[in-house]
Amino acid sequence: MPNSSPPRTPHTPLRRARTGTPAPFHGTLPAAYAAYGRALPAARAAYERALPAALALLRRARRRSRAARGRNRPVPLAVLRRALANRPAPARRDALRPRPVGARPGHAGIRSWPWRVGTSPRRVGTPPTRPLPALPGSAARPSPRPPSSPRPALRLAAARRPRDTGSVRTVSATAGAVTAVLAAGTASVVAGRLASDAALKVSAGRPLPTEPRLTVHGTAAGRITLTRDLATLRPGVYGLAGDGSHAVVGPVLEGTPHAADTVVRRLERVTHGTFTAGDAAWLTPNLYVGNPRASLGLDHTDVEVPGELGALPAWFVPGDRDTWVIAVHGLGTTREHALNLMGFLHARRLPVLALAYRGDPGAPRPPDRLNHLGETEWRDVEAAIRYAVRHGAGRVVLLGWSTGATMALRAAEHSQVRDRVAGLVLDSPVLSWPATLRALARARHTPEPLLPLAVRAAQGRAGLHADGLAGPGAPDRLQVPTLLVHGPDDQVAPWEYSRRLARRRPGLVTLHTVPDAPHAAMWNADPEEYEERLRRFLTPLL
Predict the structure, then answer these.
(1) What is the pTM of this model?
(2) Mean pLDDT of 235-242
(3) Most C-beta atoms within 10 A of its C-beta, which of 59, 71, 272, 314?
């Protein structure tokens, strides 16, 4: 039978494309979190009040269980020998013949008909017995007891049979229920902690869970063939990273023949390493690796910024102006991310300080080894502002990506030197850490019912505030001109929060929307337009 399915065309993706449109914001979500937070102390107090009684019931059930096991302990050997010594003599041969009912009067409770050949009369409800050989040292003798009396061994076993009481069953059921509740609570806490690691333990320089892993299908002069995916179909220029390799890929080459499940992009250059068919790779916003001198040919100085936890390494590229630009990278990247704009800023004679904050390679580790999503890292940005002021900066412009934008925004709100901040450039800012944590945990295939547990676990582990920068009072605390660069295809930081911030402060915040761009890669989608918007924003501040 011929195949009735339509033929695949080169434009038919074989992989399921991810939707980059964020979920619509629900206005009742903050109220639900507030109600949950108010109910949590009462539930915790009730749990602490009920726990002693549950533990007492559990201990009582254990004591009764041990007592029941003591009543059912094995019969001592001496008692068993005495019982076997008093057993009756074996029945005669004629006693094995079947007899009619009533042939042996006076044997109440004896079932006399029908008998099985080879057995002796037995009481109703007792198992048949066979003659047992006498133990060494004991002689068999006829029993003086009448045949109707129960055997001593059976009577002894009946006397030692444990009693079946309802109270033991009730206590056991209660103890089982308490144990199940405690086990379920422990499992929920552990699952929440594991799910919260998606945002609290992001490694610098490694791809985020939302970035798909790709496969290199082949390379040629000036082009590279990759797995067909929504990520490989994005417009713009990106870095291509692999295990020990890095390259720069340009736009999609439409006219090049390729298989239906692949995409051919322009291969701009290979920075280091090689890419061959079958290699795993992923797209990154970093076009450059190394330091400013090695990658861009710019003179720079390796400096150390005194921070709260220790010395913070940074690159300083000098300039003629007294307004410095402090660049702060975000999730999954390093200070190499600032190299994308360092050439543009140096051409405008702006000094640039690219900072590595706590948790980065070469920087001090936080005490809890967790990423606080800008909640505590902004103090390192404040230390960078102090460093710039001490070394001749009159004012500073804070340029941040992802959580680096969150740090810049918090420093402009809470720093003691916030009066030196002339403006903010926020690329893909994380304005709602619960939404970002859910997105990262969902990308790691965390079940939907565990997402609220992950949020609560992250709030408790990292000390994060419930409202974050998306709270009702956050726009009112913003006092400097701000350029927001964000797009609706960001799967990590929802674009809706940036739109809301721009609507609430229209005279102070400018929103530039970039379509078809992933998280923290707005410049990569259209570098010329991005730099033009940045030039227009910086010119009045210089």
Answers:
(1) 0.67
(2) 96
(3) 314
